[in-house]
Write a structure and sequence with these properties.
By secondary structure, the protein is mainly alpha-helical. The chain contains 13 helices and 4 strands.
């Protein structure tokens, strides 16, 4: 029979899951499995084996009976604070400026597409200027961009890269145009979420720098030919030119009001007078 002191000690304790290293082992195996996709098949095989060991050990810790341990409860005195006489006004959901419904206005997607097109032209101008100044050919940067999809250009020498290739021009035009439109749409979607005082900095400089860092870390796999011959100074300049143009066009476009501050019935199209706030009706 347990003594009174022992029963009191157990009553002041709670059961919690026992510490186990198996979740960490399983996560490490998953990391190895994914790392092997870009390194070596052997790394993935080792990761798969580690995942199996981690999963088996993890399951044995919870099935059929979970391993638990007793932890003592420590009572801490509750601090007593003087009641404040100040009041806080709470915004009601659905009211204008409620934080749940920010942003209430966004840049139109058409501005993002237009900014992406104009920014892509400015970026292409900087790239072609590099080709004329550094390589003496307008088609050098065009062929380097197309080398990601055309093996013939990926293995071509400097003379071939400086010559005009219709297939290379079409591939480069399509890929550059598609990426420019996509990034322009991202500008239109992201800029309204940024603090207004940092909009110009985000669109013109921070986004190009982040994009350059992403390209620098993946270019070796995407386009080895461009990675071996790229001039990073000119590349960053072209990215900044894109950011300046696209960010300016999107940031100065007329914002479109959304229905984020409307009640659900009004957003669903239910005809119910008085549901839309009076300030929204005046707009």
């Amino acid at each position: 029979m347990p003594t009174e002191e022992h029963r009191t000690q157990i009553a002041n304790m709670i059961e919690v899951p026992a510490p186990t290293p198996w979740p960490f082992v399983t996560a490490f195996g998953l990391a190895l499995l994914l790392a092997g996709l870009v390194t070596s098949l052997a790394v993935s095989v080792v990761g798969f084996v580690v995942i199996l060991f981690g999963a088996v050990g993890w399951f044995r810790d919870v099935l059929p009976i979970p391993k638990e341990e007793l932890v003592a409860l420590v009572e801490t005195p509750t601090p007593i604070f003087a009641r404040s006489t100040r009041r806080v006004d709470h915004l009601q959901p659905g009211a204008e400026s409620h934080r749940v419904y920010i942003p209430v206005s966004v840049h139109p997607y058409s501005a993002g597409l237009f900014g992406g097109v104009i920014g892509g032209i400015g970026m292409a101008f900087i790239a072609c200027l590099y080709g004329l100044i550094a390589q003496g050919s307008l088609w050098y940067p065009v062929n380097l961009l197309a080398a990601a999809a055309l093996p013939s250009l990926a293995e071509a020498g400097p003379a071939e890269l400086k010559a005009f290739h219709l297939s290379g021009f079409v591939v480069a035009l399509f890929s550059h145009g598609a990426i420019s439109l996509l990034v322009g749409l991202l500008y239109a979607a992201i800029l309204p979420m940024m603090p207004s005082r940092f909009t110009a900095f985000w669109g013109s400089f921070l986004a190009p720098v982040l994009w350059t860092a992403l390209v620098a870390s993946t270019l070796r796999l995407i386009n080895p030919a461009l990675n071996a011959r790229i001039a990073w100074g000119w590349f960053i300049a072209s990215q900044v030119a894109f950011g300046l143009i696209t960010g300016f066009i999107v940031a100065h476009s007329k914002e479109v009001e959304t229905a984020q501050s409307w009640p659900l019935a009004a957003r669903a199209g239910v005809e119910a007078p008085g549901l839309i706030p009076e300030q929204e009706e005046q707009r």
